[in-house]
Automatic annotation (TrEMBL):
Origin: domain of life: Bacteria
Start and end residues of each D-isomer specific 2-hydroxyacid dehydrogenase NAD-binding domain: 105-276
Species annotation: Martelella endophytica
Keywords (A to Z) from UniProt: NAD, Oxidoreductase
Protein name: 3-phosphoglycerate dehydrogenase
Entries under Pfam families matching the protein: 2-Hacid_dh_C
GO molecular function, one term: oxidoreductase activity
InterPro entries named in the record: D-isomer_DH_NAD-bd (IPR006140), NAD(P)-bd_dom_sf (IPR036291)
Alphabetical list of CDD domains matching this protein: GDH_like_2
Length: 311
């Protein structure tokens, strides 16, 4: 019998994913775009990024939902998610792309690039003596698949690197802190704070006014995870008062970021439109296919999402 894998994503090109998955799945799994499904009853697997409300109700025989990305907050928060296993991507190339973006952000702040960009606009030769990486401390909040690689890459560059997670971890060159009480002391000594926490009921709004107040005066802030982890008004206040020296922001509470947002013009702030990392068909297709083949054989799945934890 031929099963169907239904694909839905606005930003990701269907043809590239189909062509990467087809040879791995063989003839027994048909891959169809959501708006071209021939027989909804044969749909057993869904590969989706932010499908519309009511999407899952069309497919009564779903056995597996695969999130076409790493962050699952929008998927697990839905009321209409069927009671079947949910997996996400855990792709080394995606982690590498993210680590590169985070490293760029850390270098941007540690090498005073916002200062030189502002000076260039004024045609000013504004020499500022560089600091050694070893003098600069970086705190990475969230040490999951993406956070752990980013933290170890930062450590490899010689920065004093700290991380924060729910429990202890062993990462080369990274001093790992854990638990709520460890956060404020960690923030008080970090020159650059990088947010890589997933959005869950426990992290929504976690970086609030008190958290920004706990950061070292003059610290820089980087957010590449989800905008809703941050109290955006509190962050804007911390940037506006000069308590934070700048920020590199890839994610926002509301996307696209409104043209009215004060963030666009705050000094030292770089805005990028949610692209720190993306799923890549060539490297992610094998794990998607492996999970589909595993569920067909009743074998354990990789990269399962815990609905209870929310990540
Ligand atoms: P993971 O789910 O693998 O890891 C999450 C990490 O956060 C874990 O280390 C976990 O701790 C920690 N954590 C979760 N809750 C808490 C808490 N309450 N207190 C302290 N630590 C906590 O996430 P990834 O590394 O794969 O990805 C991080 C996020 O990046 C994604 O959730 C997604 O939102 C975002 N993302 C953004 C992209 C972009 O382009 N901007 C692209 C892809 C992802 P523990 O290890 O102890 O469980």
């Amino acid at each position: 019998m031929t099963d169907t894998l239904v694909f839905y994503s606005k930003p990701d090109p269907f043809e590239l994913w189909r062509d990467a998955l087809s040879p791995l799945l063989g003839d027994s799994v048909r891959i169809e775009r959501a708006d071209e499904v021939t027989d909804p009853d044969t749909v057993r697997y869904a590969l989706v990024w932010m499908p519309p409300e009511g999407f899952f109700a069309r497919f009564p025989n779903l056995e597996l939902v695969i999130n076409l990305g790493a962050g699952v907050d929008r998927l697990v928060a839905r009321n209409d998610l069927p009671d079947v296993p949910v997996t996400r991507l855990s792709d080394p190339e995606m982690a590498r792309m993210m680590a590169g973006f985070v490293l760029f952000s850390v270098l941007r702040h540690s090498r005073d690039i916002p200062h030189f960009e502002a000076a260039q606009v004024r045609r000013e030769w504004a020499y500022r003596h560089p600091r050694a990486a070893t003098e600069i401390s970086v705190a990475v909040l969230g040490l999951g698949e993406l956070g752990a690689l980013a933290a170890t890459e930062i450590a490899r560059q010689g920065y004093q690197t700290h991380g924060w997670a729910t429990g202890p971890k062993d990462l080369p060159g990274v001093t790992v802190h854990h638990g709520d009480e460890a956060l404020a002391p960690l923030l008080s000594m970090a020159d650059i704070v990088v947010c890589m926490l997933p959005l869950t009921p426990g992290t929504r709004g976690r970086l609030d006014a008190a958290t920004f107040a706990a950061m070292k005066p003059g610290a820089a802030f980087v957010n590449v995870s989800r905008g809703e982890v941050v109290d955006e008004a509190a962050m804007i206040a911390a940037l506006g008062s000069g308590h934070l020296s700048g920020a590199t922001l890839d994610v926002f509470a509301s996307e696209p970021l409104s043209p009215e947002s004060p963030l666009w013009t705050l000094p030292g702030v770089l805005i990028t439109p949610h692209l720190a990392s993306v799923a890549l068909p060539a490297s992610a297709a094998p794990q998607i296919a492996a999970n589909i083949l595993a569920i067909r054989k009743g074998l354990p799945l990789a990269n399962s999402v815990s609905r209870v934890r929310g990540y």
